[in-house]
Specification:
single chain, 294 residues, mainly beta, Beta-galactosidase, Chain A, domain 5, seven-stranded antiparallel sheet, globular
Length: 294
Amino acid sequence: MCEIMELRSADWVVDVDQQGGAIRQARWRGLDILRPYRSQWDAFAAMCNASFPLVPYSNRVRDGRFNFEGVEYQIPSFRPGDRHALHGVGWLARWAGEQPRRNLARLILRHDGPAWPWRLEVTHEIEIERDRLVFRLSLTNTDKGPQPVGLGFHPYFPRDEDTRLSFDSTGVWTGEAAGLSEHLMDVPEHWRFSEGCPLPEEEIDHCFAGWSGRARIDWPKSGLSVAISGDRNLDHAVVFIPPDQKYFCFEPVSHMSNAINHFNDETVTGLRHLAPGDAYTVSMVLMPSLAGQS
């Protein structure tokens, strides 16, 4: 049975699960910053979490197949009935965990298995820093050869009829199916979140390119806002807004969806070619605030 690590401060309550390296809940001053874990959200347990790390790729790999340096690979899809591989290996694995301080959890994953053809080691740190919740994700290639690597975070946020989302991007990837990036296009008017707008009723499941590294979510009814920041390696963002649900996702990621199947062409994917022994690190910060309060 996996241990739940409880991070606490005067304002924060954060529960971290070794299964999936995931966040179960993140509450600030009694308010849910992330959608809390609820078993009824999805029959697939990993998607019931408040947030999980994306390792070593984000979103989908078409048919679970790709070519890297002239070798064809096939990886599993994980969910029954899914055609495409999804979200990497970290969200389904059991991580080793330690809690050096009351405000810090450190999770470690050493992967060597069929779900990804290369060995790797990942550290995922979640730390409360005053009003900020900081996520750090670092992957080291422990294999004998190079491997393609992408990283990211998959937080779920609460949603009501007045929730507003703000962020800047330079384009959006579209394709024949959700989660499969094929064509980079200008952001259409109804998906321009730069000035902040209510979440659309239509479903969105797309990767936005050229993310500025800054985003903001507002819940006007409660006066709560959350500023999201990503480091310079996180220059893409996946926006998933399912219709008629009380949650949505804004996912800071390092690369386009299905990037591995464009890695050998001229497309700027964001995916990294990581040599043996090299490491790749990304970070995300959530900083909540209340209207009229400091």
